């Protein structure tokens, strides 16, 4: 068997979609884990990195662990993706400003 005939065992990455209806209901696919949540903030680990959802009166409406599907209801104010290298840059900037 040569290099070109070799078959690699590659697991397909699940899709990651976010759907918001009138800023009151939200459906998120590709969720690996819910790290924390309360009525003002959800921290979700997704296939595309960590996602922070901020709002008011947020509630976990539905959770399907096998499919990686999360439904949240409440007033949505903000969605933020957090990457590790961006966190380090932000910390550096704020530490320089507030010395």
Automatic annotation (TrEMBL):
Pfam families: YabP. One of its GO terms (biological process) is sporulation resulting in formation of a cellular spore. It comes from the Bacteria. InterPro entries: Spore_YabP (IPR012504), Spore_YabP/YqfC (IPR022476), YabP_sf (IPR038705). This is Sporulation protein YabP. The lineage of its organism: Bacteria, Bacillati, Bacillota, Bacilli, Bacillales.
């Amino acid at each position: 068997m040569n290099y070109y005939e070799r078959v690699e065992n590659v697991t397909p990455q699940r899709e990651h979609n976010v759907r918001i209806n009138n800023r009151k209901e939200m459906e998120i696919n590709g969720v690996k884990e819910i790290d924390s949540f309360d009525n003002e903030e959800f921290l979700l680990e997704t296939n595309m990195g960590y996602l922070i959802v901020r709002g008011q009166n947020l509630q976990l409406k539905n959770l399907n662990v096998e499919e990686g599907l999360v439904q949240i209801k409440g007033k949505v104010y903000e969605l933020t993706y957090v990457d590790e290298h961006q966190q380090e840059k932000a910390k550096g900037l704020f530490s320089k400003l507030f010395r």
